[in-house]
Amino acid sequence: MTAQTWTTIADLATALGTLVLAVATFSAIRSANLSARIAQRALLEAMRPVLMPSRREDATLKVNFGDQKFVHVPGGGAAADVGGGDGSMGQDDAVYLAVGLRNAGNGIAVLRGWRFYPDWHRDEQHAPLEQFRTQTRDLYIPVGDIGFWQGAFRDPADPEYEAARSAIEAREPWTVELLYGDHEGGQRVISKFNMLPRSDSADGWFVSVSRHWNIDRPDPR
To answer: pLDDT tens-digit profile of 37-88?
Structure first.
């Protein structure tokens, strides 16, 4: 063989080696990225809350609205009332709402907002985020434990006040969509809870959950 032939063979061998190294590097990077995504998903799963109604055997919770108004929320139930506060936070004929919840997820749930409907709301889509009322304080529900959501209509001039008051006083079904996420502010979810009046009691509502929507990640459906 001539020197030129050997040079050509050496160049081809070098090119082949470079190609093999590039393929190996690409495979390693791809594998590392996959491992990183799996680790990230596992981390997020460990922080993900999922809110459900509390169970009927769960303890009754006493909820304070800050104006000397208290309601009692039984396990598996909701409470609502009109008036009874001392007026220190506005009108004394406010509409008070509370729902018993259980966190069935793996991370602490932090409630951040709500949307009320004065009926058994059946829409397949949740309300736009800009229509949600912001909680005046964050409500935390530990993993595997119970807690509550609370909200109130205090201003009779509020466009939703009269409808909410009428539904509660007439003991009609009502619905809330709750916006919540993990304790770092991510993995936001909207869950829809429907309240039906109890037939075995003069007050109180049964609670069921009908839909969950993911906001910050792909929706399962």
So the answer is: 544 554 545 568 999 999 999 999 999 998 889 999 999 999 999 998 877 7
Write down the pTM of the prediction. 0.79
One-letter amino acid identity for 3?
A
Spatial neighbors of 99 by CB under 8 A, at least 6 apart, are 53, 73, 78, 148, 149, 150, 176, 178, 193, 195, 207
Cα angle 155, 172, 72 (rounded to 5 degrees) comes to 70
For 55-68, letters b (16+ CB in 10 Å) and e give eeebeebebebebe
Nearest to 210 by CA among 178, 180, 172: 178
> Alpha helices of 69-137 — where are they, by DSSP H?
none
Count of helices and strands (H, E) across the chain: 2, 11
Residue 157 CA: distances (Å) to CA of 87, 134, 162: 16, 18, 8
